[in-house]
Amino acid sequence: MGNSYAGQLKTTRFEEVLHNSIEASLRSSHLVPRPIFSQLYLEAEQQLSSLEGGSRVDNEEEEEEGEGGLEPSSPSNPYQLQPPPEGCCTTDGFCQAGKDLRLVSISSDPIDVPAGFLLVGAKSPSLPDHLLVCAVDRRFLPDDNGHNALLGFSGNCVGCGKKGFCYFTEFSNHINLKLATQPKKQKHLKYYLVRNAQGALTKGPLICWKGSEIRGRQTSARTGASSLFPPLESSGPPAAFPSEPSPGANPSVLMGAQQAGAASDHPSLSAAPGPPLFNGRDSPKHQQLPKSNLPVPPRPAALGILSNSGPPKKRHKGWSPESPSAADAGCLPGAGTRAKCESAGVSCLPPAGLLGAAPVAFPVVASGEPVSVPDNLLKICKAKPVIFKGHGNFPYLCGNLNDVVVSPLLHTCYRNSQSISRAYEQCGATTIQPISEEMQLLLTVYYLVQLAADQVPLMEDLEQIFLRSWRESHLTEIRQYQQAQPQLFPPTPSAAAPVTSAQLPWLAGLAASSCNDSVHVIECAYSLAEGLSEMFRLLVEGKLAKTNYVVIICACRNAAIDSCIAVTGKYQARILSESLLSPAEYQKEVKAELVTGKVDSLGAFVSTLCPEGDIDVLLDKFHQENQGPMSSSLTTPSISQAASVDVSGAPVCTSYRLEPHGVRPFQLAVAQKLLSHVCSIADSSTQNLDLGSFEKVDFLICIPPSEVTYQQTLCHVWHSGVLLELGLEEEHMTKQRVEQYVLKLDAEAQTKFKAFLQNSLQNPHTLYVLIHDHAHWDLVSSAVQNVCSQSEPCVGLVDRLLNCREVKEAPNIVTLHVTSFPYALQTQHTLISPYNEIHWPASYSNGADLYHENKKYFGLAEFIESTLSGQSLPLLRYDSSFEAMVTALGKRFPRLHSAVIRTLVLVQHYAAALMAVSGLPQMKNHTSVETLEIAQNLLHAPAQCPRGHGLMVLLRVPCAPLAAVAYERLAHVRARLALQERFEIVLGNPSAGVTVGKHFVKQLKMWQNIEDAAWRPQTYLELEGLPCILILSGADPLGESLPRSLRYCDLRLINSSCLARTALEQELALAAYFVSSELPSDKGPRSEALESDAEKLSSTDNEEEEPGTEAGSALERRSPVTRDRPCSQDSASSPLSSTASGSALAGEAGAPPAGPLQREQARSPPPCGPSEEGRVPGEKPRSRAGQGPPPAASTHSPGRRSLHAAVTSSCQPSSSGSCSSASAAASSALVLQAPQCSLAKACRQPPIVFLPKLVYDMVLATDSSGLPKAASLLPSPSVMWASSFRPLLSKAMTSTEQSLYYRQWTVPRPSHMDYGNRAEGRVDSFHPRRLLLSGPPQIGKTGAYLQFLGILSRMLIRLTEVDVYDEEEVNIRLGEESDWRYLQLSDPWPELQLFKKLPFDYIIHDPKYEDASLICSHQQSVASEDGGTSRKPEDLYVRRQTARMRLSKYAAYDTYHHCEQCHQYMGFHPRYQLYESTLHAFAFSYSMLGEEIRLHFIIPKSKEHHFVFSQPGGQLESMRLPLVTDKSREYIKSPTFTPTTGRHEHGLFNLYHAMDGASHLHVLVVKEYEMAIYKKYWPNHIMLVLPSIFNSAGVGAAHFLIKELSYHNLELERSRQEELGIKPQDIWPFIVISDDSCVMWNAADVDCAGERSREFSWTERNVSLKHIMQHIEAAPDITHYALIGMRKWSSKTRASQVREPFSRCHVHDFVILNVDLTQNVQYNQNRFTCDDVDFNLRVHSAGLLLCRFNRFSVMKKQIAVGGHRSFHITSKVSENAAAVLPAQYICAPDSKHTFLAAPAQLLLEKFLQYHSHRFFPLALKNLSHPVLSVDCYLNLGPQVSVCYVSSRPHSLNVGCSTLVFSGLLLYLCDSFVGAGFLKKFHFLKGATLCVICQDRNSLRQTVVRLELEEEWQFRLRDEFQTANAAEDRPLFFLTGRHI
């Protein structure tokens, strides 16, 4: 039935050949040494080839073929079945007679079993989940040892009853096994069948066939350099059954994972693995690899797992190591270094004797049937095995399920890695295949092999290994597709063929063959069930005692594989099983252990470890002996001479000072960044926040349900003064009033939050800022009901409140999330836009200190840096003796959670340390050095301060019941030692406040000068200086801040097995600290910076060792890398504990300690420098008296009775890299300095942190970029990785880049509140009013956001205010003295005839023209001759006066205003596409320019109804004008034109509110080069674009073109409407020309008691522009007025100015122009300044009426950009941007003067404004003799007055017959100015003349034409020009003197 062959291996021969082959491969320079298979098998294979398929003899020791049956890729001869008889049944599970044989069907049926026969279960390959029942003669079955089975077969069919089958082949045909290979009883008869208690037939034990033992390979773990953390992906309970997956175990929908098929489906998949996983070691013996008959890519760094076709099987033909594919392996050219992937073949089948065990039967277990977990498994194994499901099907488990843990994490990891190639699918990379299941499993085995004994596997590491392997195997294809370059040849698949499922067990076995039983590989034939059963049997038999991992492979199922990995190592299994518990389950388990009394046995055991007897007995004895006064060593000393004394004689501590509540520069910078982000939300086009509509700010701060955090936040708000600043509270507010602004998220939060929402609804003009502090806490979705237990009503509360619909939709609520750990809020589904994230700024940029602060922040990065730098004692430490104790007890008490064990051990250490310090020195051996140091400093620190200030020790106990146990125990020990008044023990519970004893409250009140008798500390910050142990409980820290007196942060009890990045960092955040940055820089980092007390000298254990110590320390400083290497010993006799020995022993040998025990200056990792660093300078080290050589190394094991096991071993440099210098208990004689308060050091040093070993390794291990390994963990348990195909985080990443990384690579779990965000159907899933502020813990984020509230409030107030010009009218006393006034004070409109009688007031009263020349008239009072202007010359550049005004609802706005009402007006309307507008040309001729003017209109679609087109979309014909007779109140008749430049953002063009929503036509007049930017900001405004020739022109050109265009349009409209029967005079002739800074309009309400009465009162109010325009447009006879304007607003306006309703005077800024009447009066197109004054004078001289409505006023906003400020006069040649002085604006013609880059007209106007006295010296301050200015007004400066006359016939001019002029100004005079005209005027002798012309030729012609040489004398040197180049057309001047 079976067969054997000559190549059968013997154990010794195999080991010998394997060893020789490995040795040869190491020494060989050849890349492919001869594989061992060729040495062992080749000859036998050749001999046996002739026997293939022949008859064979059954052999009991026959080796089974591969458990997977025939390899699918191998050429095989399938077994030829005889055809079944016709008509018989061929159904699987039935016999040929048609009877059911399946166990599940007939288990209850009575079966006749003949004597000597047994019922057995046969396995059918076609029914893998069923057993077929057979009756077999027991003689042909083996005994329990696998022996004594007769060859052959005898069996009966239990179905049809047929008996006497003598051949198994015949029997297998009858029962329809349908085999593809020759039937063998050993292969198919798997289980004995037995009856259970109910009489049902069930599967029993395995049939133990000899030689069918499940083959395994075992490896020993190597020590690794970096600790690897447990997988963290499951936040749910462990799944005991496959049918109960834990949450997140099946994220295939999210991850887009694709399951890989069999390896044979992916022929191009490279079998080559990723880079080495040996933690940087390249020990050659660990890189022996199986020889492959497949080519291997030549990667020197390859891990070296090569696919192997396996050994030759009996039916394999033609296999030869010399085959071409084998010869090519690893020999491709271009390999830079010799590949260490040389393979040594391994036997495909070791014989049974190889494993040295008795023959073991393996049963056939159907995958559908459960595998029974043995009873007492935990008791036997000392740990619960953790089984990770791998590939394929996983069997059911039954029986003792409590002793095993099943997890789907590995299965999820495998499946995620199958989706790797998705990133390349879009490139069409058809040749790129995902990593195969076989390769995944092989890589997993290699990963497990290289893990050290104290390391735990980490899923993230495995994913990166898969990724690297896949990338390297597809390097060519990836590069090709990344470069996307056309290829001459198609890309070839990887040369290496895939690993097949048949090869897999052998490769896995080879991988595991190099280590001592650490990894054990089990190969199964049919299902994992057999492998699991085998594993449980081995565990029960104790054969896996040294095995940490069992890999079970079943590779028979249709070329696909089933696999699982069981973690059986006690250390790893405990950590992994505990890591799979959810926080709730963890708490539940610990509570159960405490309640049921399981802990008592541990407590009793620990107590008895003390050799002197039970600790409690010792305590009681000590208590009785010390009822009197305490030992002198503990009494507080008298005040030292160094302590200062205040006037009353009481001691004073100079180190104790409470922190002032100020705002640091960093906080202010962050507050401003927050404000900037809020403004950017408001400025965006999405209209999500209308800041302009809010009048005040209110806020609510939501915090986790921690009473201490609540009180702490109340204090912050109280001291910040933000409530007063926001106007929310009065000056004398109570604490209760503050409480309504802080919400504790507990059961009562909902009521308070509803009130907040109600307020936000009722106050739409208040901006509510909802601040979610500590925002990483409670991210549970409110939809996950089953998570919210009765005990935790707060779970999901954040989602229920902050993400409710009311908050999301409220337009006046901005949500600000504040956290130090934002990672879980940065997922693919986050609500927070990446643009709305604010990260705390870095302290330094390019080495420069950005914000100078006197304190330096010390956070996690600084802790790590200081620990690795080697410049001082490490701040992060672990306690090796404590860890060893915990490990030993963990093995002894496997059923207890490690948190319970750790807590009880640490509390016992604290108890022993306190006893040791209090006078029981023998207890030093029963605690750790670290704990002893803490106890000593805790008790002795108050003695060093004159006022008794001490230090705080933080003991973090996450589990509340354990914290209570620790508190009670420590309190008991303290009471027994009579230390109740020496230090306090505070139990910090999140749900309770701070409880401190009366004695200590009294001390705190004295220190803090508090008089209030009822005062109690409510925050930990108020415990400043109190010597205490703070036991902080709670699953997570909830934002509690700790005082500066915190010296030790004891985190040894944190849950080190279940840490995500957030969990880890928030625990370490407790130590975050501010240290003074004002340290003397020359001293360097002395060890005084730590609690090792610099004032106490340290000395080495042995002076002779000191040079070695220094050398070792120096080496450490030079090579910080070595410090990262953990100790290789697993026992407590590590370097760390060894350093303690000297200290402890010396303390016993010397006097009782009077000061703290010096901490050893070395730690593991080794320390930082020679011991001299801690000494006083100049002091030599001194050895202690009587100290001998260091004691010999102890051999105590961790489980021995001593609490501090083996602390006496000496430190060997070889083990730690440096000898440690342990310091002794210093006697008082060694103290050379005065005692120093511990708070003095607190300012300069951060606390010392003690961590669990696992966490310590995790934090200090860094990747290649220097990033701590902890940062690469899963960011939070509530999220999961989106894909294995992700890059690693890098240390170089900024906070923003990290955020983008997490946003790309993490997705929330279904329990996360953001999980359903993408399902809302919005494309943009970000919430627009949600921000995230992240910054390091304890850095001051609360102060920053409170400061932000203040500046936000100030900005809102500022937004509702505007700076308007507030200047009194000028030249009032120079006003016209006339008897004629408009005295009908109540007239709403001017009466035309009365108004015509009013004289025109030539004087300019507008304050902006305070520096302009006065205009003289004949009515001017001579008495004011000396007046001049009120402003002194040196005040010319003084800033104009402004007033801050609240914006009314009728204001004009700039582009920053957004509100719902004006959305449509601004163009944000769904009917109109943004920027949907058309460009239209509009041309008309103008004779004065001598050419056609061509303008362009940009007309939005929404405004086309204002225009007339030749056809829709055709030629623009005209702009529609209304009729004079139209009385409609729905719209404004006059089109408004606003010329503007440089003010696209700040110009006030939004007139929607000013017009009160009325329809109006508004046109912006812009220069051509600014068209695009104005169109971008004002897409819905009509633009009039000036021709390009006016790009450098001034405002005169815009006014000129507006007026000419309007008149031309009036003509067009008249002709168009005349055809409709409308008279030309009925067309509305007015336009409005408005400045772009007019912001509000006012009306004065006048109360006149009588027409002539002196009683006159008036009030002013804001009105809409609509009101003013409609009032003016309704005036009777309005068409008779040429110009209408209004007063400029001023707070200083006098009643006399408002008394008369109308004035005939100059109008400015906002004018209503009658283009019909002023047809022949033009604006001067060349002017830059004073063009409105010039135009006003022209209009008046033409006999037209100018009317100012004095009861209306306009407010002008101060805008600092644009307008006339746009013109800068600079040199045209020099690049120097220095300003050019006005005196340089003109020069002599043909001179070498530097030309200026400015228009000639601007240079002229500016020169005359500042230097006109050079031309008109007699006019200076001479009002009686002004300068005569003909046809124009030019500003000659405030000290020169002018008299304007018009040369036009019939013009109105000032009577000049009596005036004698001091000068004559002729500016571009036209033909109306003649010689006769000028002769009418009289000039002083010596008066000066200035003639200005376009060129020199015109200048001479003008002099001749006007006969000027008759009365004026000219000199050649009196000719000038503006300082322009010839191409810029300068203006020319000629000056002369009157003869």
Explain what this protein looks like in three dimensions.
The protein is α/β, with parallel strands linked by helices and 1939 residues long. Helices cover 26% and strands 16% of the residues. The protein contains 51 helices and 58 strands. The strands form 14 sheets. Strands 36, 37, 40, 41, 42, 43, 44, 45, 46, 47, 48 and 49 form a 12-stranded mixed β-sheet that branches. Strands 51-57-58-56-55-53-54 form a 7-stranded mixed β-sheet. A 6-stranded mixed β-sheet has the order 6-11-12-13-8-10, sandwiched between helices. A hairpin with a 2-residue loop joins strand 1 (117-124) and strand 2. The chain starts with 10 loop residues before the first helix and ends with a strand.
Q: Return residue spans where pLDDT drops below 50 for at least 5 consecutive residues.
A: 1-12, 29-78, 212-367, 485-495, 629-643, 786-790, 1079-1234, 1421-1437
Beta strands, count: 58
Q: Globular, elongated, flat, extended or rod-shaped: what is the shape?
A: elongated
State the helicity in percent bands: 25-40%
- Average predicted confidence as pLDDT: 77
Count of helices?
51
Structural class by sheet pairing and helices: alpha/beta
Approximate strand percentage = 15-25%
